[in-house]
């Protein structure tokens, strides 16, 4: 059994001073994380888990369409290999935003925009784009970085001012490792993080453009 809509743990406890200044994902999804399907991907599977979470959002969002189910990590690897990516099925090869974009486009016919940000300050300059994304599409984002190798979902944004330290991302972290869906333990992997606390180096943000409904 997968937990649903875990970002609400964060919405219930927003950063001080940001109440009423929050934009977030719209709709439902399932929270995929390490070991959730009894497959041990600890240490390398976070990108796949974030992809699975976003895929579940797409399926819930387009509930009246016959869309492919959320696939296993091995199935994603087989698909990427068939597309010419140097990823072998049943390997421990991790993926990032580019590979996730390919999967979402192929399986769900939904294009994605990849926002390449040279630094946290560059992410800050794109806050209007992120706010617009949540307002227009309501879809979760996937984020990974040059020095921050841990893939994560971005499910909201909060601001209490216009400075970088006043802007927070609501992170749904797939590194919760458990075969048992325990909401008490899982809530530790849902948290707000100030942009000023991000690692140095570039970040890529994957933004599913879900307004175009799959046929």
From TrEMBL:
GO molecular function, one term: deUFMylase activity
UniProt xrefs under Pfam families: Peptidase_C78 (PF07910)
InterPro entries registered for this protein in UniProt: Papain-like_cys_pep_sf, UFSP1/2_DUB_cat
Keywords assigned by UniProt, alphabetized: Hydrolase
This protein's record includes keyword Hydrolase: yes
Residue stretches making up the UFSP1/2/DUB catalytic domain: 21-206
Keyword Hydrolase attached: yes
SUPFAM superfamilies: Cysteine proteinases
PANTHER family, sorted: INACTIVE UFM1-SPECIFIC PROTEASE 1, UFM1-SPECIFIC PROTEASE 2
Family: Belongs to the peptidase C78 family.
Name of the molecule in the record: UFSP1/2/DUB catalytic domain-containing protein
Organism the protein comes from: Oikopleura dioica (Tunicate)
